[in-house]
């Protein structure tokens, strides 16, 4: 993608926002190079000069939206696409998956971004072969979804041409497809186990409790952040022993915490179990399971309050208005706070300025929008000196609104005493550890170099992954373009055949009409000169083509015939044919009848037809 100017980039983003607002299609999460290329292709097809003009065009022509979406959503797919990957799925994944289930357990499969359905029916054939048709109908449910309604309609029809079925083995084709007119339709009996529906991977909640999730060559169109969101939903959707089947360029290099490869070459992955509460909340929030998410939050509220109350560090919560909202047990003991102090302004409490001035530090933390640590401060409390480390952590809502601050106090008194003792002992150990320290430094340097190398390799791998995805996208675009060109070539070939037949038919008529025929264009130049005229005057067609009639040296008087031709071209009626004295190609005298007729329609004259006949033959 060429770099866009700031104005072009702003216009392009405005176009994407318009599509989202008016049609509900959110393309902002797609990779910009691919998205720009596809939309630019549509703009060029319409011979529109800029995205601004195209946005105006969309506002006026509502019928353009489906054509634009068809251009952006590249529906390139086929039966048994990448055969080696399907072989691994059939020979290794499905046997292990079926072995983990009881004989009557249901099997749930989701084909996301299914396009025109070839992949869905490939799954159906593979599972039916493993289970048998009866068990397949009783146990299997395949959910096939896509964002493109037109592609879904084609998938529901399950009607394919012989060319579409070339990759399907002959025995499977005979077993699972029936002849329907000029094409083939997938078995209606097995098709009842397939459920089609529109689904947006970015907006809609995922289908859950899945044993197998197939989403091939769809993630590569999205940016890295969006890929992570979709994969989190896929992780939530799969059962603990479920499998994820991706396209050949989708490697999940940065998603090792969600999926592990069972066969990286075939792009088959297994789910990494997540059992912690934090992981469950994160995945449920991304996957859209709102009720369970809110229920867990509600049930954890009391646990959170209790954990805060009995936290080991003294902690105080101050709201955005400067009021003490909460103080745990350790804080109440340390600063002699009572229940009456909760709800009072912080500035009214001794705590606000002793052992340290808190209000200025709170304001600074708000401005910096990050936690602020106050190094160890001395607090003279009666006969003893206490050393405290104070940490102020600002709290903000998702929209950036201030919620308050959490202030924690760490007692560093014992640490300072122990640190002093440690410093004394450390001096005694320094000599013994000098050589070891030198070795450690060398190892650390080596580790850093290795870490730098690993990071460079990871970066290179990610760049290669992005390049592979981009190349696969271009490949699918080229395949789509080749199919369009093939269709155009077939049409041109048919029209060329029709034109050749028409020319043959016309030449046959002109060759057997028995008259000398010359067809002249608007400028009086000869376009057609039949064989009778060539025999009559002894001049071949290739000798007269493109020349003026009066320039040809034949035995017909040029001047009067030229006047008849000029009269016909000007639209003046010629009246009756005229007979002239002439000489044929052998020099014999003859009488020739000449007729000039204007050639055209709807009052527009595009040429003249000149008929020449021997007068004694008339």
Question: Could you explain how this protein is built, in words?
Answer:
The chain is an alpha+beta fold. It has 4 domains: 67 residues, Chemotaxis Receptor Methyltransferase Cher, domain 1 (Orthogonal Bundle); 191 residues, Rossmann fold (3-Layer(aba) Sandwich); 102 residues, PAS domain (Beta-Lactamase, 2-Layer Sandwich); 107 residues, Beta-Lactamase. The protein is 48% helix and 22% strand. The protein contains 19 helices and 20 strands. The protein has a 7-stranded mixed beta sheet. A hairpin with a 2-residue loop joins β4 and β5. α2 packs across α4, α6 crosses α7 and α11 crosses α12. The two termini are 73 Å apart. About 2% of the residues have low confidence.
Using brief descriptors, characterize the structure shown.
7-stranded mixed beta sheet; Rossmann fold; 618 residues; 19 helices; 22% strand; alpha+beta; Beta-Lactamase
Largest sheet: 7 strands, mixed
Average pLDDT value?
Answer: 83
Order of strands side by side in the largest beta sheet? 6-2-1-7-8-10-9
Quaternary structure: single chain
Distance between the termini: 73 Å
> Helical percent range?
40-55%
What would CATH call the homologous superfamily of the largest domain? Vaccinia Virus protein VP39
* Strand element count: 20
Q: In the CATH hierarchy, what is the architecture of the largest domain at level 2?
A: 3-Layer(aba) Sandwich
Spans of at least 5 consecutive residues with low confidence: 287-299
Hey, roughly how much beta strand do the residues contain?
Answer: 15-25%
Helix/strand/pairing category: alpha+beta
**CATH fold topology of the largest domain:** Rossmann fold
| Count of domains | 4
Count of helical stretches: 19
CATH class of the largest domain: Alpha Beta
Question: Nearest-angstrom radius of gyration?
Answer: 42 Å
- Can you tell me the overall shape? elongated
